[in-house]
Amino acid sequence: MGFKCGIVGLPNVGKSTLFNALTKTAAAQAANYPFCTIEPNVGDVAVPEPRLKKLAEIAGSAEILPARMQFVDIAGLVKGASKGEGLGNQFLATIREVDAVVYVLRCFDDDDVTHVTGTIDPIADFEVVETELMLADLESLEKRRANLEKKARGQDKEAKAMLVLVDKALEVLREGIPARRVEIDEEHQKAWQGLQLLTSKPVLFVANVDEDAAADGNDYSRSVEKSAAAEGAATVVISAKIESELAQLADDEQAEYLESLGLEEPGLNRLIRTGYDLLGLQTYFTAGPKETRAWTIKRGATAPQAAGVIHTDFEHGFIRAETISYDDYVSLGGEQGAKEAGKMRLEGKEYIVQDGDVMHFRFNN
Length: 365
Hints:
Blueprint: E1 4-8, H1 15-23, E2 41-46, H2 51-59, E3 63-65, E4 68-73, H3 88-95, E5 100-106, H4 122-153, H5 157-173, H6 189-194, E6 203-208, H7 219-231, E7 234-238, H8 240-246, H9 251-260, H10 267-279, E8 281-287, E9 291-298, H11 303-310, H12 312-316, E10 318-324, H13 326-331, H14 335-340, E11 345-347, E12 358-363
Parallel strand pairs: 1-4, 1-5, 3-9, 5-6, 6-7
Antiparallel strand pairs: 2-4, 8-9, 10-11, 10-12
């Protein structure tokens, strides 16, 4: 399991350039005019994980398989999208399918790259996109409410429960507040997610700066960070132009180029790490002669749930998990050393998997 992030924003803010760089493809045409992205582009990328190489060396693995995640580059949105302006209907349908929304906001001046409003104002850009999503949610809920109310009058318990959630969402949306601000208890989370509200998804802000501001940001990106903090969201400062150039370089050349810019790592690494945190994800490993592999799970997942990410049969027939922490695996020279030192644990169905666990599952066929 990885996660699927929708990259959204107004036209010409650098969405497609960033997407191309992140996925190291030219699948999304980056051109200097609105709507150059006509179809949503999906890029499947490896999650950077430095621990994989070390584990593979110790295990003598023939292959290294990182976890995967997806970016979806979604057509540029404009004011009126909720009413079908521009490519609005397509945009709104695609964004319902993602796990998180990455707002790419233009934080650079460049007379050669046009802006649809003629003014560089990342906060105003964000508000345009957010407003369109809220209007779409309002329309969706208001259409649904009449039918739910009719069923609720007929004493339909499920409809009554759903009507409460719909009214909660409508109350905040009518005040111009996104649905993600509504507090929903655990019992009703599944039903809430079933509403498929665009503004209920977790958000991440990407401040797309020019090359000179990549290390320290600029006034535009600082305004984005301030707004994101008010939302309880994170901001990643990235230069899509730098990421695009990095994508063309070999690994050793990348390190040298980053150092010359005062950067420690590519923006992709920071974006994925922040995304993992946003969605409450973590990594565990399997390691052996054939392969060393990273697997993505939700924080708080039990051992059977982690096994189920490999195959549903592993979860259903789960017996136990032979578990070694990453640090013990490395310091003791692998599985055998960990066994001899008493650091391999036999964990049962209630065990909560920890980030970096190296696991081998026993299960009934």
